[in-house]
Amino acid sequence: MGNIPVTEAHLLGLFLASILYGFHLTTYAFCMEHLLFSSTRAGRGWAMFTISTLLLVNGSFDLLVHFHQIIKAFVLSKGVGGPIVVYEDISNWENVVKSLSVVVQTMIGAAMLVGDSWHNYSSHDPFVNTDIPVLDGIQ
């Protein structure tokens, strides 16, 4: 398979991101139903609801910026060079915001994992309390 031009790669990226966003939105809806309306997760649902909503908002914003960049490149770009000029400008605000979106997504996900591990470790479940020190010694 040959090299894919930058313009086609961005169009393909938007297509795949839209499909994966649909999966994310569907999974979010089913999980929120369980988190908010299930009696088995009392007290823990609101924290995960907040984190999941932040991740969804961040992903939605990233997809919106990606869509805006494609509209700007293919519809509004009338100058010399066409859409390639839009993508070659790496200091463009869309590229910076998309990079920051990845950083924010990573920070939210890492904070969620650390908080969940801390919650599990501090519980009185003997399996969790014995597994964590054993796994800590494995390096």
Estimated radius of gyration:
21 Å
Q: Report mean pLDDT, rounded to a whole number.
A: 81
Can you write the helix and strand succession as a string? HHHHH
What's the total count of β strands?
0
Fraction of residues in helix: over 70%
Name the shape in a single word: elongated
- Report the span from N to C terminus: 40 Å
| Helix-strand makeup class | mainly alpha
Descriptive overview:
Keywords: Membrane, Transmembrane, Transmembrane helix. The chain crosses the membrane at residues 12-30, 45-65. This protein is 81% helix and 0% strand. The chain is mainly alpha-helical and 139 residues long. It has one domain (6-107). Helix 2 (45-76) runs antiparallel to helix 4. The model has no long low-confidence stretch (mean pLDDT 81).
Give a short synopsis of this structure.
This protein has 139 residues and is mainly alpha-helical. The chain contains five helices and no strands. It has one domain (6-107).
Which short descriptors sum up this protein?
elongated; mainly alpha; 139 residues; 5 helices
SSE layout and pairing:
Layout: H1 6-37, H2 45-76, H3 83-88, H4 93-122, H5 126-137
Helix pairs in contact: 1-2, 2-4
Transmembrane segments: 12-30, 45-65
Keywords: Membrane, Transmembrane, Transmembrane helix
